[in-house]
Design brief:
Layout lengths: L29 E2 L10 H16 L8 H15 L6 E4 L2 H11 L5 E5 L4 H9 L4 E5 L12 E7 L11 H10 L3 E5 L16 E5 L11 E4 L44 H17 L1 H21 L12 E4 L5 H7 L2 E2 L1 E3 L2 E5 L6 H11 L1
Parallel strand pairs: 1-10, 3-4, 3-5, 5-6, 6-7
Antiparallel strand pairs: 2-8, 7-8, 9-12, 11-12
């Protein structure tokens, strides 16, 4: 992955030279916490305000915001490289993982990576009758075996930014007839993503896609994955407005059969983030984000710190510096502590000056 973007100068708040979209963001801090929650573009704030005002005033046509969900579905589908009919829209990645867990037969083995995000793995642990086996991330592909029904893994690890070898994992899964579930919540929006190479993907919209909470996506195979639509409500009907009373007699013939009733104002907001990602392009975003992360890694080395190895990642995790988030906060730098380590993440609104501000605070 290219990291050749020039390290120019920034403005200290993440806007101006070095930011990919300065007109869309006005952070009041050095914001390095996208792996927890992304900043929302100004255009999204305006669109959500307009939608919320329409509901507050009872304006005619406010119910048309349901059409926005299909626009979001199409934008997300383009981003991850699958047809829109293979995308389900909801509000929680954990619910989509629970849907898959509930659809597996008793006795099925689910293979997971150690320390992966709880919303991905916990639905399989709490579903009675499944056998969940956990192995180190780097051994996931070699641990697929006869009887493995599903391999569930995050494309990028939330705790430390390590990138999974999805090609090797996919090849191993296919060799043994297992399916793959990949959580792309920490990759979609900065790392080019091919959801078609996986059986299932889940993704939340409030991190690298820069939407509000309340948006999440599931992609399924062309055959819809054989999932039991245990959470299906009226919006999952082939004709939703004709499915509002009694049993839904005809579920949607697309992945929309797995939709949850959407948080419409949140969907109005996430559309702006998806459009921004599409406009800038994941390849350009990846080059920008990773260049900043590499600048930070180089600075850490000069300070005598060694981050968790995660080449090509926009997330940097530093053992031993977990308590430093307080010191960073006092200096106006937002970061996280995860798994006891300092975690920082770089995205379109960050600049080289943001990197230098964090290194100065740490020194």
């Amino acid at each position: 992955m290219s990291t050749t973007m020039s390290a120019g100068t920034g403005t200290g708040t993440g806007t101006g030279a070095g930011s990919l979209a300065p007109e869309e963001f006005a952070p009041e801090t050095v914001y390095l916490n996208t792996a927890a929650t992304g900043l929302v573009p100004e255009s999204a704030v305006a669109a959500m305000h307009e939608a919320a005002t329409a509901y507050a005033r009872g304006r005619a046509g406010s119910e048309d915001h349901f059409q926005v969900v299909d626009g979001v579905r199409e934008a997300f589908a383009r981003l991850v490289g699958v047809p829109a009919r293979r995308v389900a829209a909801g509000g929680s990645a954990a619910v989509f993982c629970g849907l898959i867990a509930q659809s597996l037969p008793d006795g099925a083995e689910v293979l997971c990576a150690e320390g992966d995000f709880s919303s991905l793995v916990n639905p399989f642990h709490v579903r009675p009758g499944l056998r969940v086996r956990t192995v180190p991330l780097e051994k996931l592909a070699t641990e697929v075996r006869p009887g493995t029904a599903l391999v569930a893994v995050s494309a990028v690890q939330s705790a430390d930014g390590r990138i999974a070898d999805l090609r090797a994992i996919g090849e191993a899964a296919r060799a043994y007839g297992a399916r793959t579930l990949v959580d792309i919540s920490q990759s979609a929006g900065w790392l080019p993503t091919d959801a078609g190479a996986c059986d299932f993907t889940v993704c939340v919209g409030y991190k690298w896609l820069m939407g509000p909470r309340g948006t999440a996506f599931l992609t399924v195979p062309e055959d819809l994955g054989g999932l039991t639509p245990v959470f299906a409500g009226w919006v999952a009907g082939e004709e939703p407005w004709e499915s509002t009373y009694g049993p839904v007699t005809a579920l949607a013939s697309s992945a929309r059969r797995y939709d949850h009733n959407p948080a419409l104002v949140s969907y109005v907001g996430v559309l702006a983030g998806l459009r921004l990602v599409e406009e800038l392009g994941p390849e350009r975003i990846a080059a920008h984000d990773v260049a900043l992360a590499d600048r930070f890694r180089a600075g850490l080395a000069r300070l005598g710190h060694r981050p968790v190895p995660a080449d090509g990642s926009a997330i940097v995790s530093v053992p031993g510096l977990g308590p430093a988030t307080g010191r960073l906060s006092e200096a106006g730098v937002r970061a996280s502590t995860r798994a006891g380590h300092l975690r920082v993440a770089f995205h379109v609104y960050n600049t080289p000056r943001d990197v230098d501000a964090a290194l100065t605070a740490l020194s």
